[in-house]
Amino acid sequence: MRPSDGRFKLWPAAVILIVFVFAAVSTTPTVKLNSTPPADFVVLRGSAAGPEAALAKGYWEVTTRVIQLKYSRTTALPAEAPAEFRLVDGTGKPTKVEDQAARAAYWTKVRMEWLKPDNWHTSYGIDWEWPVRNAKDCSRAIMQFINKT
User: Fold this and answer.
1) Which residues partner with 80 through β-bridges?
2) What's the pLDDT score for residue 43?
3) Which long-range CB contacts under 8 A does 38-46 form with residues at least 24 apart?
4) Which residues face 29 on adjacent strands?
5) Is the pLDDT reported for residue 137 higher than 90?
């Protein structure tokens, strides 16, 4: 065993600092639309029970499953409903009979609810794969630059 010379070793503090910084950089927020529709969305065309409530929940499910992946939370949705904003049956195919007036009404309401912060929730998670993605992106950019010259 070596005798101590009275100096403080900095390597443990440096290792802890590196791990802390890496964990802090790896923490990523995820913002998602609430899975339950707002109350005023459900009662848009009727009561909170019955076929209209099921219709509203179906359109909200399409919004959470498809629309939020296509559009950013901070952007306004287009005036016309996209083709993906359709009710689907159990097999995943669009339903044959669709009330265009109901679809338009629910799309208008989705556009209003989209920008309200109460309809979104943020969760935090750790993404350990960001260095690999960044390395792949850098190598791809370098290869594109080399191929252009």
Assistant:
1) none
2) 73
3) 38/113, 38/116, 38/118, 38/119, 40/109, 41/106, 41/109, 41/110, 41/113, 44/105, 44/106, 44/109, 45/102, 45/105, 45/106
4) 124
5) yes
φ, ψ for residue 122, nearest 5 deg: -110, 135
Segment 44-80, tens digit of pLDDT: 665 555 567 788 888 999 999 999 999 988 888 999 9
Determine the 3-state secondary structure of 42 from DSSP: helix
What are the C-alpha distances in Å from 69 to residues 7, 56, 118? Answer: 55, 19, 18
CA-CA distance, 40 to 15, in Å (whole number)? 52
Contacts of 22 (CB under 8 A, 6+ apart): none
Longest dimension (CA), the chain: 85
